[in-house]
């Protein structure tokens, strides 16, 4: 075993904003037939978190032992804790650093509770006193030293038992204004709100002559005031009366909101469900776009709403609930949008201190959104809500409450991840994340099948491959990817994010949407990565510029990879889903079903490709003239396999009022639609006794677009694409639109 102490000799982050920790990392080369017991290599590394420690381990391993992470594995990565974390220690540090004039040796002493804390002080001290960059500092040795061996006067002065520190003189100043008053001053401004008519009276005890007002202080802060009387045109109420009335009003409004998010049981309004159909359709979407004066800009900015259609004994019950994410809580507490989303830039959080708000505004430091409004997935028997950041929320499959939260970036070094992970038959889950840095790349993430009793399968995530970004500071936008039994297919489209614009977005007021740019003069690259080795194939595939949100399927046939996707000719679709365009019934881009054939043997390229300097130029085939989005297939059996049928929504207009079934073999389409309804993503549920690919049913939520209609869950025969049943929701229940979902029997 090789043991070496490495102390961050090549740091890629700003040490001023991180507290370092000490980690012990053990790794090795993967065992092979030639070397069944490769040697272990151990390093003790200072880093802010585990992913950074693992990244540094592979960097030093490649430099010292020529061992790359694609051929190696991490056996252990754990934080080294102090044995006596409450005792202040004298810590000596021997280091070497490079300045403009040469290389210098230096000895430093610090007092701290831990060695990691002393190293953090050292890096900050070197940067402040010597202008030393973190990458130019190499720590040779650090150890705890007794007081008798300390050399530096600024450390030895603390060893004097008679040392004293003067206490500041505290002066208690009288408050200029009392905190509470029973009468409103004449100079107080009141912002009157209408009489509370919409509150549920019998639940709250409030009467219709109650008025809600705000006491506006000189600093702009508003204090709610509720009263039952109007006195001479002014409003007055005792503090005790205000307290209890405010609490009743809060409960009333809570009950009122909750009435839109309760389970509703309803018998089938038309038709009969198949006897074999039993389970739950989980869906994810958006439902709240405004907080106080702030409103969302893009459809993807809405707060997440989870949906549950429970099917049992021929009946359907429906439930939906706002996802109680950290983002929702922060926005609600501030009554503003204080967490940036896809199309909206957050305001500084008024709940934060002035110093924190300053850095949040100018440097954009803060938590990523966990408003998981895009998709849901299963890891074993655990249900997770997903978006395009690594932050996931675990959901109770019965009540739809949040029971836990996870951050994928704690285990793998990614800043973004797609909302469409793919699952192999054995339960292994794959996803692709983006690592944004000076050398941006796309990381292949693998989560092994959850073991029995594993309460946190996400922590088993590992990186199995990496794809370098063709523009290091401008990684592309990715929403999904393709996968076959042996390969990962990643489309690097020329719709890319400018990291500089995104990093300065809080200052320039540019959102992620504003940072995306379409470079139509560049080619689209189709990367193919071998899952077994984690390396790219030798052939580079390119095509004319296009954009894609959703892959349909991919499979291998005759030493070729067939990739199917819903393809857009340009990137205008991103602007089509702004709330303004939707309200104005504006134009929308259409996507078509296109097929790319990637020959793994370039010398046997098909007529649809052209070989030029080791690059294969791909010309896609348009399978159908139908406009299709949110495509679904018989996923359980035909994902990664040759297939025939695709189901989706028809995007001829922005109303999305039709469902479509495409037959790839005959290149025909079948439509189903009903006026006044917005069609949701069709989910295929296979017949357990079926023998053909389309033996099963289609479940799709039909959302009303008129007040005199009722939303319902549509049940279609997948083979004939005709209605066999529908479950109507009561007219007083509003169902927001949803994006994606799964059918499960948890």
UniProtKB/TrEMBL annotation:
InterPro entries: Carotenoid_Oase, Ribosomal_eL20, Ribosomal_eL20_dom. Fe cation binds at residues 420, 479, 550, 740. Residues 20-141 form the Large ribosomal subunit protein eL20 domain. Keywords: Iron, Metal-binding, Oxidoreductase, Ribonucleoprotein, Ribosomal protein. GO terms for cellular component: ribonucleoprotein complex; ribosome. GO terms for molecular function: beta-carotene 15,15'-dioxygenase activity; carotenoid dioxygenase activity; metal ion binding; structural constituent of ribosome. Belongs to the carotenoid oxygenase family. Belongs to the eukaryotic ribosomal protein eL20 family. This is Large ribosomal subunit protein eL20. It comes from Paralvinella palmiformis.
